[in-house]
Design a protein that fits this description.
Blueprint: H1 8-35, H2 47-50, H3 55-65, H4 79-96, H5 106-111, H6 114-134, H7 139-146, H8 156-174, H9 194-203, H10 218-233, H11 252-267, E1 324-326, E2 341-343, E3 355-356, E4 363-367, E5 378-382, E6 385-386
Antiparallel strand pairs: 1-2, 3-6, 4-5
Helix pairs in contact: 1-11, 3-4, 6-8, 6-11, 9-10
Length: 389
């Protein structure tokens, strides 16, 4: 079977594709780490596609530089709305960065130009993670935030060289004197994991036992550094161990993006550093002690007094019980006499005993109804119940 040997162009293309995939993966994690504490939190899967409508880009600039959010289209439904958002984001970008973007246009973001958008994200990483905390660029960098008229912005090439040199010098100063650490670049110098652990140890010696690390255990050193930085200092893990294992070309942009998070964490003012508390050690298991349950006397309610016996009425329910009938008052012309006038009963300790009035001893009342075929009033005799005092 004939073996096919790839030519130089195919090898170069494969390396470029591997480097681009590593950068996209790192940039996705970096953007998500910046937007996870937003309101509302935003999470993306593809920075090229998710930044095209301008919503993620506006919120990213707001989180990185603290710029007030403009009135943008939160749910753009057309390309015009997306273009408005991108133009707003570019206006925000000109206010805070000291780098010029002569070739980057809003149309590049709308159309999803991979090369131009990767360059824009890379510039944001250097500007917010290196230039801002390390004050790189002097007056050109400081004038962007103070509102004063700043000098001419730096071009992308000179700004990248200045930021990389400043970050490399910062790492060298931090790791000076650590055995086995000699940082000369952002590729092979970080491959064994000792440089990351030395940075952590220089910030807080209690984080890592640097003397116990084995230079030959590259993967283990990387895992210790990534886990400690994330759990103890809140630095997001933007890299995987496989990104530095040597099987694939190490991408310098990805390493710089991750190291810039160390810079922001270490160089931030103490008042702005929110260090997670150290985990509380779990005490050893202690067998529970059996304790006899306490007994308390139960409260006893006092006995109720005996119910008083009441005399039952000899007749059924009477709505006029206890009322004494009186003679209705006189009435004048045109007034209808009331049927009966009742006074409120007197207080009786015991309910009164009722009895029916004798036959023929009722009260004579005039009925206001007219008789059929005549004029006048009928005299009606009715029998009422009399109350007995």
């Amino acid at each position: 079977m004939e073996t096919v040997i790839p030519n130089r162009e195919e090898i170069t293309r494969a390396k470029e594709q591997s480097r681009e995939d590593a950068q996209l993966r790192t940039y996705t994690r970096w953007i998500n780490s910046q937007l996870k504490d937003g309101s509302p939190p935003i999470q993306i899967n593809d920075p090229i596609q998710d930044l095209r409508n301008g919503v993620v880009l506006i919120n990213l600039l707001h989180r990185l530089y603290g710029i007030q959010l403009p009135h943008y289209h939160m749910q753009p439904s057309s390309k015009i709305h997306a273009l408005d958002n991108v133009v707003m984001a570019f206006n925000m970008l000109e206010q805070v960065t000291s780098t010029s973007y002569p070739f980057l246009k809003p149309a590049n973001v709308i159309d999803g130009d991979v090369k131009m958008m990767m360059g824009m994200i890379w510039t944001l990483v250097l500007d917010s993670g290196v230039r801002k905390p390390l004050a790189v660029g002097g007056a050109a960098a400081s004038g962007a935030n103070t509102g004063e008229q700043s000098p001419r912005p730096l071009n992308m090439q000179s700004f990248e060289q200045t930021a990389n040199a400043a970050l490399l010098n910062w790492c060298q100063e931090r790791t000076k004197g650590y055995e086995g650490v000699n940082i000369q670049n952002f590729t092979e110098s970080f491959a064994d994991g000792l440089a990351f652990n030395a940075l952590l140890h220089s910030y807080d010696p209690s984080l890592v036992e640097y003397q116990m690390l084995n230079p030959a255990s590259r993967d283990e050193n990387l895992r210790i550094a990534f886990t400690t930085a994330e759990h103890r200092l809140g630095i997001p893990q933007l890299l995987d161990v496989s990104d530095l294992d040597g099987q694939h070309p190490i991408d310098a942009h990805s390493v710089i993006t991750y190291v810039s998070e160390y810079v922001k964490r270490f160089e931030a003012p103490r008042s702005e550093q929110h260090r997670p508390p150290s985990p509380v050690p779990v005490p050893a298991y202690v067998a529970p002690v059996e304790v006899e349950p306490l007994s308390f006397p139960q409260p006893v309610a006092p006995p109720l007094p005996p119910r008083q016996q009441t005399q039952q009425a000899t007749m059924g329910y009477d709505p006029y019980a206890g009322y004494q009938q009186q003679t209705p008052p006189p009435y004048g012309y045109g007034l209808t006499p009331p049927v009966g006038y009742y006074a409120p009963p007197a207080y009786h300790p015991q309910p009164p005993v009722h009895q029916q009035a004798p036959q023929g001893q009722g009260v004579n009342l005039y009925d206001h109804r007219k008789p059929k075929g005549g004029i006048g009033r009928r005299l009606v005799e009715k029998t009422y119940l009399w109350g007995k005092n």
